[in-house]
């Protein structure tokens, strides 16, 4: 596929947000509120995700133009369950953990096929794997796998000028009302900047990464947590 | 190895020659796991073999988890040769849930306890470059099943035994799972997933007095030797990046830190990843 090269200095980015999480819907709203053209890809439960994702990207391109920024903000809904690992049967383990990794892989592959040179990928994830959360072993497993998969993409796609970065948000911001009641996220103290809208902050980081100031940043993990985790 | 005193050998190597690896009984870890029972998966070769030898040298009875018993018997013979406690060869394909449970229960039935599980097994295709952009889910499954899913299977199978002993679960992760390898994308991702698994499970199992840690090794293994065969210049390129100047020996260099994490000497260490790389990775 021949694609135009994304030049963020002259082209307002057209973004696609992939996911069905509160983070995905929240980012769509906040990016649109800032005047940006935003499409949506629903990972759903397609039998053939590759064809489904390609079709979804094509629809977005037809409706609003070729996307220059892809935001992945997805975990399988089954990930939003908390409980002891040893009580999980294999199917639940897969649904709560590994299924999200497979979908992320296929979304990254679709992004690579559809983005122009110089395009941007931002993977938004909950910050749970930074410190580990009891009761959420499958989710922490999936999140860290996806985060490093994004870094692999960053290493590979730099030749096309495509950047891939990760933005971490607190779990309750990522899942919203779907946050499982039993998820005991260990406290790391108060956010330095106080209570803020983490998704609005994440949207700001997405726009920074999508704009000219983000051209040279790839493979990074940024926290939209108002200064809570502060790692490293 | 280059003899740097030989005038015919050319300019000195920019890195130190590899030291001779000590034998298992010379590792200085004797007694650290005396009376303990340790299961090692993927123990037929490479890092798994090295950890099995080191654990036995530290006094542990080792369950040698292998897909094909003949490979395990060779390791058991090595242990017998240096006077380690008799090891037990277990048919333990970690992709087979029944074999995972069977290997754990057989070991406990024979020795009455389980003090540590070291999950080392990884896909035979771990060292093969992957085109992240086009690779299919069948290949992903090959990687994930042996590393990620098996981490879960072993945890479920071993939990009540490790709880009874106040034991340790060690997962062999990789610097690639932190730093991300461009060519080894699937390997990097599954190893990263295991690291997320370690952190969360360490918090979950802390109240059960079970410690969960990761070891990220850089060692000479059959897989790495295969890559050197494909790309002969790779050995020196990589060696020059290691401050200590040599590739780790699985038994002498990776084994003892893993034994430490399995032992009471590490009773206050959990949720960590110990990078054992000769200083190759200092920013992880």
Chain pair forming the biggest interface:
A-B, 46 and 41 residues
Q: For the residues shown, what is the average pLDDT of chain B?
A: 92
Q: With helices defined by DSSP (H or I, 4 residues minimum), what is the helix count of chain A?
A: 7
- Helical stretch tally of chain B: 9
Strand arrangement across the biggest beta sheet of chain A? 2-1-3-4-5-6
User: What is the count of β-strands of chain A?
Assistant: 6
Regarding CATH, which class of chain B?
Alpha Beta
Helix and strand sequence of chain A: EHEHEHEHHEHHE
Low-confidence stretches of chain A: none
CATH architecture of chain A: 3-Layer(aba) Sandwich
* SSE series of chain B: EHEHEHEHEHHEHHHE
The CATH homologous superfamily of chain A is named: NAD(P)-binding Rossmann-like Domain
Low-confidence stretches of chain B: 1-15
What is the strand content of chain A?
A: 5-15%
Strand order of the largest sheet of chain B: 3-2-1-4-5-6-7
Structural notes for this entry:
The complex is a heterodimer of chains A (232) and B (284). By secondary structure, chain A is α/β, with parallel strands linked by helices. Helices cover 41% and strands 13% of the residues of chain A. Chain A has helices at 22-33, 49-64, 90-114, 128-131, 137-157, 171-175, 198-210; strands spanning 14-18, 37-41, 69-72, 120-126, 163-169, 221-223. A 6-stranded parallel β-sheet of chain A has the order 2-1-3-4-5-6, sandwiched between helices. Chain A is globular, with a radius of gyration of 17 Å. Chain B contains 9 helices and 7 strands, in the order E-H-E-H-E-H-E-H-E-H-H-E-H-H-H-E. A 7-stranded parallel β-sheet of chain B has the order 3-2-1-4-5-6-7, with helices on both faces. The longest helix of chain B has 29 residues, at 137-165. The model of chain B is unreliable at 1-15 (pLDDT under 50). The chains are: A alpha/beta (232), B alpha/beta (284). The interface between A and B is large, with 46 and 41 residues.
């Amino acid at each position: 596929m021949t694609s135009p090269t994304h030049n963020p200095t002259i082209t307002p980015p057209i973004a696609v947000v992939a996911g069905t999480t509160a983070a995905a819907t929240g980012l769509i709203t906040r990016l649109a509120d800032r005047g940006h053209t935003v499409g949506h890809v629903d990972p759903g439960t397609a039998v053939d995700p590759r064809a489904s994702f390609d079709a979804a990207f094509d629809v977005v391109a037809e409706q609003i133009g070729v996307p220059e920024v892809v935001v992945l903000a997805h975990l399988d809904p089954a990930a939003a369950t908390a409980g002891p690992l040893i009580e999980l049967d294999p199917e639940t383990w897969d649904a709560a953990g590994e299924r999200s990794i497979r979908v992320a892989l296929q979304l990254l592959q679709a992004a690579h096929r559809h983005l122009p040179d110089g395009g941007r990928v931002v993977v938004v994830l909950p910050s749970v794997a930074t410190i580990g959360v009891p009761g959420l072993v499958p989710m922490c497993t999936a999140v860290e796998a996806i985060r490093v998969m994004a870094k692999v993409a960053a290493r590979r796609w730099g030749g096309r000028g495509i950047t891939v970065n990760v933005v971490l948000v607190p779990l309750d911001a990522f899942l919203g009302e779907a946050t499982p009641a039993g998820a005991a996220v260990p406290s790391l103290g108060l956010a330095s900047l106080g209570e803020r809208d983490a998704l609005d902050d994440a949207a700001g980081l997405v726009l920074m990464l999508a704009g000219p100031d983000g051209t040279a940043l790839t493979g990074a993990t940024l926290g939209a947590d108002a200064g809570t985790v502060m790692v490293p | 190895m280059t003899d740097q005193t030989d005038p015919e050998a050319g300019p000195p190597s920019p890195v130190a020659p590899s030291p001779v690896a000590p034998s298992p009984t010379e590792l200085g870890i004797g007694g650290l796991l005396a009376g303990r029972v340790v299961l090692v998966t993927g123990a037929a070769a490479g890092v798994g073999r090295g950890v099995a030898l080191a654990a036995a040298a530290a006094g542990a009875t080792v369950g040698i988890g292998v897909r094909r018993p003949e490979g395990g018997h060779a390791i058991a013979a090595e242990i017998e040769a240096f006077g380690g406690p008799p090891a037990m060869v277990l048919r333990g394909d970690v992709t087979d849930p029944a074999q995972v449970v069977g290997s754990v229960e057989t070991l406990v039935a024979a020795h009455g306890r389980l003090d540590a599980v070291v999950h080392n097994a990884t896909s035979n295709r771990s060292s093969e470059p992957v085109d992240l952009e086009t690779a299919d889910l069948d290949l992903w499954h090959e990687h994930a099943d042996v590393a990620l899913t098996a981490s879960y299977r072993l945890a479920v199978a071993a939990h009540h035994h490790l709880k009874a002993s106040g034991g340790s679960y060690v997962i062999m992760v990789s610097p690639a799972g932190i730093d991300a390898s461009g060519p080894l994308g699937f390997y990097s991702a599954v190893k990263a997933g295991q690291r997320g698994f370690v952190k969360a499970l360490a918090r979950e199992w802390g109240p059960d007095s079970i410690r969960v840690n990761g070891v990220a090794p850089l060692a000479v293994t059959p897989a790495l030797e295969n890559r050197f065969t494909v790309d002969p210049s790779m050995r020196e390129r990589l060696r020059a990046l290691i401050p200590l100047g040599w590739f780790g020996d699985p038994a002498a260099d990776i084994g003892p830190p893993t034994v430490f994490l399995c032992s009471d000497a590490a009773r206050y260490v959990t949720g960590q990843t110990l990078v054992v790389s000769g200083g190759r990775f200092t920013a992880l």
